[in-house]
Amino acid sequence: MNREIKITINRRESNRRYSAKLKMKVLSHYSNNNVVCSICGESRIECLSIDHTSGGGNNHRKAIGTLGGSFYRWLVKNNFPQGYQVLCMNCQWCKRKKDMDTYLVRRDWEKLSGARS
User: How many other C-beta atoms are found inside a 10 Å radius of the C-beta of residue 84?
Assistant: First the structure.
């Protein structure tokens, strides 16, 4: 393997580690160090992300010119502003579709019936 390829591979791996640490830092902050979805309790990091509690996240990210990891950097740089929470992608989808009442009823039923641990 030539030197340039090795450098590229090392840089990519370094970027992945940095991104993972940054995501964990942000998720930890917005979940009070209990990194789970604030609605359903999902704990797999790859399923979790930051949600704008008031909605409008897409427009906000466009306005500040960030996407993905750069949004996490923006949150840190701006001292973790209020108005954000940790949600899994399923709960974000339900929230976006304004179907949260149905989702919460199902989640509560699953908890009561022991269908999901």
Answer: 18
